[in-house]
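Write out structure tokens for Pimeloyl-ACP methyl ester carboxylesterase.
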Amino acid sequence: MPVELAFESLGEGPPVVILHGLFGAGRNWTQMAQALATDHRVILPDARNHGASPWSESMSYPDMAQDVAALIEREGLQQPVVIGHSMGGKTAMALALAQPQAIGGMAVIDIAPQPYADQFGTYVAAMRSLDVAAATSRRELQQALATKLGPTAPVDFLLQNLRRHGERFDWRINLMATSMCMGDLCGFPQALPPCCYDGPALFVHGADSDYVPPDAVPGIRALFPQAELLSIPDAGHWVHADQPAALLAVLQDWLRRVGSIATTTHKR
């Protein structure tokens, strides 16, 4: 059963829905959304178990795709373009394959329709091991998490999930469900309809990331035959943080072309 996702809405015009990645929230994409909102209505949902959205025991991609489909229906969005990063990209792909009529295009950022090794279980375990309720400051928790994970871990990003209620801290993210569902999150569902999505599709990856290796390309093209693949230099997995201007330019150009295709099709 879909959960009712919390979201923010910016701008007016053709709709765009941006789906964040694991440990993130819609607000992580605010800067990008503000730029796109000059020509579009941009929706920034929080995924289930993230941000202000409800918690659930399941985090399968078909379920999360249903959440987005329900949001699209509730808001009366007419075939929005769906942009997704990492976990959000897999959710976008699951939605496109299951309900292609619901969207007008799909852009996937630094992820492919394939399983990955678990790179995030250690983050979840370290976050769960912190006694956040007993902590007296955010700095205390930052130091503790950095000690557990090491100097290269994205500690500040992970701590965006920390919130304070009066004198106590707790987590916005459902760490228990995330831990239990890590297999689903690292995988890609095999039980989707045996078809492809032949609408507009863009796959953008960071040139310094290993999430979209060359051997992933045949799988992308099999499921998304209209896919355009682009690489952004000097960017890792978090392309929107490493090279925001370059990613924005790519998305704006692609959205213009998708809008032109939609207009031409409508006129016919």
